[in-house]
């Protein structure tokens, strides 16, 4: 049976060729998650998102709301119709939104992460996944790295979990040593570590801008600030030297900032190498071996050539992976979000980079 | 260019809409305060089904820190990315000259019944005709 499923998936990926690296499945209701929790957490958990900075217009695609009720992204049939079948996806990398690492109580955060993993494994990675199109992310609570490492170990070897994920919201940059149990586990089990926006400035996490911005438009635009800080931290702290097999995916953190940030870091390195003597290469040279970045929300300058030049500068051919962010409001259509690309580049971005990164 | 009767005025009250396909084109028809408007049901941005979006008002241009809300019922929000469109013109709010959706004429007409004497009709008894 497993063999048949694999064969079907292989045929499908050969036929179509889109791997979507950011798709959000939702539980039908809070009870679905609560049912996977032990007490005392079950009674304490009441769902809840990040709390502030909700989109004032609409946070999701209005047409993705299931007619029978429940949140967008909670009905596998509708998601398949609007995304998988509509665009011919070979695989969708699922990223649940647990918002677990904003809680002051690390045990509560860990319990929420575990419940989301149990839920995802039973539903989207099993009951809803006869053809194997859905690949999952192991949610971890970065506020308790030892517990996070145990959670990774609990799922390692599962046929459909392909990475570990957390929110970009944190108390400290992700290159720092307190997080290393997580990266050690990721490396040991061959799972990339994905960072997705979510709890910046929420709960116990710091806001990566000078204070709190007033509006959602500011907060959302500046989500890339946290990603930039995390990336510079990963590189300069020597995480990729300490864990040579460790890889990260920067999901929904913006794209076009990458090349100029690396130019700046490389320039700084020429003068300040002595501060980080463990680096064996120019900072930017770690990207191809260790870092992937997903496309949505793709910046679109008025002149398409400017974006194509940015793709060239940032080595998009090797590190950019397509993502749609379905069913959120800033969904990028696989057919409309990009300018026309050379076919070989399109194939790298929409399929091959993710195929290799996730070993699909 | 074809005329398409899409229903009776009596069945299409203010604040309601219909989405349909006419001559192969997806179109949304809206009754905005008893005036009818028709727009292509495809957002010029990424092709979302524009006409299933929320109909609302908008914050009008104002001085910094001031809010003036108006045009209730005349603004259509794209269901995907939230771009605002003026239902009465098809033009986007953020860039009316460069970003706009195609509009179609809508008239209210008495239905012609061949072979039968016709009589003047009130608007209420008319039919809504979209001109594609």
TrEMBL record, chain A:
InterPro entries, sorted: ACMSD, Amidohydro-rel, Metal_Hydrolase
Amidohydrolase-related domain: residues covered: 19-360
Pfam families recorded: Amidohydro_2 (PF04909)
Region annotation (Disordered) ranges: 1-24, 47-76
Domain of life: Bacteria
UniProt keyword terms in alphabetical order: Lyase
Biased composition (Basic and acidic residues): 1-13
Record's protein name: Amidohydrolase family protein
Species this protein is from: Paenibacillus glycinis
TrEMBL record, chain B:
Annotated SUPFAM superfamilies: ISP domain
Keyword Nucleotidyltransferase: no
Entry keyword set: 2Fe-2S, Iron, Iron-sulfur, Metal-binding
InterPro entries cross-referenced by the UniProt entry: Rieske_2Fe-2S (IPR017941), Rieske_2Fe-2S_sf (IPR036922)
Database matches in PROSITE patterns: RIESKE
Matching Pfam families: Rieske
Entry protein name: Rieske 2Fe-2S domain-containing protein
Record lineage: Bacteria, Bacillati, Bacillota, Bacilli, Bacillales
